[in-house]
Structure formats: structure tokens, C-alpha cells
């Protein structure tokens, strides 16, 4: 961090470090001189992180307020009360048509991707307020500003996260605390595997008006080795994270992949009806190629 942090390694808390973006970001920022506190929801993942040398790894379940409070307290105890940055990366995707999402299913998606992230942010903000500075980075998605069919729960959570973050950024103006969003797009992680498990656990494809489409959805989610065009490695997100944490004047948004740049431009340029047609054609083509 370029804010006269010459007397210590700045402390960074990251959620969702069991694999993928979180684990890669932790390693990337540690190499840049940060004291990283990688966290994961499951104790076995935290044990694996500690075995790999992450002494500051801790359990943090975004769906559990007590877990959130406990994790923040642990970081504060180990750093003398200082938390310099937070990377809200932990999330999962719940596939399914909007009409097939039960209230409980949608609530569960929001508990992790939005409400837990918000609660953790407010807990960390209390420390940053006392310090008079800090960095908060939210890991959003191309689906944080573009909607696709059969991803409504995840789209809902990320649209809401972006709106909440925009309001927070405005409210923190002049506080010394900077807030940024990263919008990755397709990244090579286990995200699809987790989404497949969520689909199988909470969606009943046999009793749905979308049963025929769900067969293609399941095939896509279970597709071994298949990837979306322009998919990048998690390191691409870690590079943007470093910019958001270390630049003196961080951007409000960081696009990562070609689809994110492309759809951000198309959303500005195209009428909604045209954009809908393009997105529906793209998803139909994706299903046909699986």
C-alpha cells in the first residue's frame, strides 16, 4: 500500500481461499509484501492452507455471523488491531430458472454472496475508521451488470453487491478508505463444479417447465475440461487486485477479461431489446456446443 506503510507489512484479509481466485490472490499479494490472512468456509480447507505454510489461515463462513465476528477478531488480535485491506472474494453460483428458485434457495445465495459480504465489510470498516485509511475490494462478475438466463440467483446477488458497493464508495469519500469492484468474467476455477452441486441440491429439473433446457445446463456444468472462450487464469484477477490495493488512486471498477470489457461497452451502446437478443443467442450457442 502506498500510504506510508514502511514500518510494517500491511494486513489483508481474503475470503474464499480454498482454491481458485482466493488462493491465487493470497499467494500473489504475499509475494508483494502483504501479510495475508487467507480464509475459507470449511475447516479442512483451512487445515490444508496451514499445512501449505499459511500460518494466518482462518475459518470464515459468510453465512454465519459468529464466524465473521470471530475471524475479524482473530485478525485484529494478531495485528494489534490493524486491518489494512479486505478482499471479498468468497461466493458461489446457484443455477436455475428464476421461477424455480424457492425463497430459501434465493436467501441462501444472498446470505453468502451479499449479506455475509456486507456484514464482514462493516466489521472491518470499524477498524479502518479508527485507522483513518483502508482498502476494500469486492469481487463481482460480468454478471454484476449483465443478466443471463438460468443464472438469476447469482445475477441478483452480484447486481445487489455492485449497487451496495457504489453507495458505500460514495459514503466513504474523504475518509481515507477506498472501495473498488473487480469484474472478472470467465476465470479457470472450480466455480462451475460448485455451481453443479448447488444445482443438484436445490433445483428439481423433472418438475419444471424448463426441464428440456436443464438437460443442457447439467451437461454444461458437468462438462470435464470444457471452458468458456477467453477464459483466463486466476492470476489475471490477482494482478487487478494488486492495482486496487496499491495504487494511490484506485479505480472504482476493474474489468479483467475480454467478455467483461465487451459487454460493458455493449450495455452502454445497445438498446435493452437488442442486448437481450444477443445474450440469448450467445447462451443458446453455448448450450449447443457442449
UniProtKB/TrEMBL annotation:
Molecular-function annotations in GO: oxidoreductase activity
UniProt keyword annotation of Thylakoid present: no
Keyword Oxidoreductase: yes
Keywords, comma-separated and alphabetical: Oxidoreductase
PANTHER family membership: NADPH-DEPENDENT 1-ACYLDIHYDROXYACETONE PHOSPHATE REDUCTASE (PTHR44169:SF6)
A Pfam family this chain is assigned to: adh_short
UniProt-listed PROSITE patterns: ADH_SHORT (PS00061)
Protein family per UniProt: Belongs to the short-chain dehydrogenases/reductases (SDR) family.
Name of the protein in its database record: NAD(P)-dependent oxidoreductase EC-YbbO
InterPro entries given in the database record: NAD(P)-bd_dom_sf, Sc_DH/Rdtase_CS, SDR_fam
Amino acid at each position: 500500500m502506498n500510504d506510508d506503510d514502511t514500518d510494517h507489512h500491511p494486513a489483508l484479509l481474503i475470503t474464499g481461499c480454498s482454491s481458485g481466485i482466493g488462493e491465487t490472490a493470497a499467494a500473489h499479494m504475499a509475494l508483494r509484501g502483504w501479510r495475508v490472512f487467507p480464509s475459507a468456509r470449511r475447516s479442512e480447507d483451512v487445515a490444508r492452507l496451514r499445512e501449505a505454510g499459511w500460518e494466518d489461515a482462518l475459518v470464515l463462513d459468510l453465512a454465519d455471523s459468529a464466524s465473521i465476528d470471530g475471524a475479524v477478531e482473530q485478525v485484529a488480535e494478531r495485528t494489534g488491531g490493524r486491518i489494512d485491506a479486505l478482499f471479498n472474494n468468497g461466493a458461489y453460483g446457484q443455477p436455475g430458472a428464476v421461477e424455480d428458485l424457492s425463497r430459501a434457495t434465493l436467501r441462501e445465495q444472498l446470505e453468502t454472496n451479499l449479506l455475509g459480504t456486507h456484514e464482514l465489510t462493516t466489521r472491518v470498516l470499524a477498524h479502518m475508521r479508527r485507522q483513518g485509511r483502508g482498502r476494500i475490494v469486492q469481487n463481482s462478475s460480468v454478471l454484476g451488470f449483465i443478466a443471463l438466463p438460468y443464472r438469476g440467483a447469482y445475477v441478483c446477488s452480484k447486481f445487489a453487491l455492485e449497487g451496495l458497493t457504489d453507495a458505500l464508495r460514495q459514503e466513504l469519500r474523504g475518509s481515507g478508505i477506498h472501495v473498488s469492484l473487480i469484474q472478472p468474467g470467465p476465470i479457470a476455477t472450480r466455480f462451475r463444479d460448485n455451481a453443479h452441486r448447488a444445482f443438484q441440491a436445490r433445483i428439481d429439473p423433472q418438475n419444471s417447465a424448463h426441464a428440456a433446457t436443464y438437460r443442457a445446463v447439467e451437461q454444461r456444468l458437468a462438462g470435464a475440461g470444457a471452458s468458456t472462450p477467453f477464459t483466463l487464469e486466476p492470476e489475471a484477477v490477482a494482478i487487478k487486485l494488486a492495482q486496487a490495493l496499491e495504487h494511490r488512486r484506485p479505480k472504482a471498477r476493474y474489468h479483467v477479461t475480454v467478455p467483461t470489457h465487451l459487454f460493458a461497452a455493449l450495455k452502454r451502446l445497445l438498446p435493452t431489446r437488442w442486448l437481450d437478443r444477443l445474450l440469448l443467442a450467445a447462451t443458446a450457442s453455448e448450450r449447443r456446443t457442449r
